[in-house]
């Protein structure tokens, strides 16, 4: 079920990158063009690298330092845990990559419509994508979790294990209410829809 739900997370980003920028081919993550788009997404939207380092699950399979330095080994338990996570998370990770690549392509299209080309277009797409991701998407990183989810104790981890989606939804509702209060009723309503 999780794998099927992942691509539909794009809908939460529509207040920031409108649905009109979504094309049917945006969900393709195979081939040279897809590889290029993913590389551009990683270059201009570093949040996508954090997503890649964290994987799909509720714990980074690598420390960010290990990821940056290219270290892929650890204790036998770390290696075994990473392998299990890799095997069980393959489809979920591909679903995430599919959704985020589609959102990246939408952001590039929106930047093009704004009259930008080349480097300026990709920088603007990176800004649009990063804003949409950080405000509407769930990704596992100590850099993106609320304080309650970073407790570290077994009790804290158990209590917040399935809170990412609800906390993201709550955060979006609060953002929508704030936009309405500040007079931006169209955006606020779209966020809360």
Identify the notable features of this structure and list them briefly.
mainly alpha; 193 residues; 10 helices; single chain
Secondary structure elements and pairings:
Blueprint: H1 2-5, H2 10-13, H3 32-44, H4 47-54, H5 64-69, H6 76-113, H7 118-136, H8 154-160, H9 164-181, H10 185-192
Q: What this model shows, in words?
A:
The chain is built from ten helices and no strands. It is mostly helical. The longest helix has 38 residues, at 76-113. The protein is globular, with a radius of gyration of 17 Å.
Q: So what's the overall shape? A: globular
The helix-and-strand class reads: mainly alpha
Oligomer kind: single chain
Fraction in helix? 55-70%
Q: Kindly provide the radius of gyration, computed on alpha-carbon positions and rounded to a whole number of angstroms.
A: 17 Å
Short description:
The chain is mainly alpha-helical and 193 residues long.
């Amino acid at each position: 079920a999780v794998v099927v739900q992942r691509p539909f997370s794009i809908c939460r980003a529509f207040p920031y990158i409108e649905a009109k920028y979504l094309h049917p081919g945006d969900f393709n993550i195979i081939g040279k063009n897809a590889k290029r788009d993913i590389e551009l997404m990683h270059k201009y939207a570093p949040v996508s690298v954090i997503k890649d380092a964290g994987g799909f699950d509720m714990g980074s399979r690598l420390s960010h330092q290990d990821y940056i330095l290219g270290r892929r080994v650890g204790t036998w338990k770390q290696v075994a845990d990473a392998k299990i996570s890799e095997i069980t998370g393959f489809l979920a990770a591909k679903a995430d990559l599919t959704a985020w690549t589609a959102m990246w392509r939408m952001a590039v299209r929106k930047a093009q419509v704004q009259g930008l080309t080349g480097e300026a277009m990709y920088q603007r797409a990176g800004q649009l994508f990063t804003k949409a991701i950080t405000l509407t998407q769930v990704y596992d990183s100590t850099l993106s979790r609320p304080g309650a989810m970073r407790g570290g104790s077994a009790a804290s981890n158990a209590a917040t294990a399935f809170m990412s989606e609800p906390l993201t939804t709550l955060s979006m509702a609060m953002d929508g209410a704030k936009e309405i209060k500040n007079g931006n009723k169209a955006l606020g309503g779209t966020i809360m829809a």
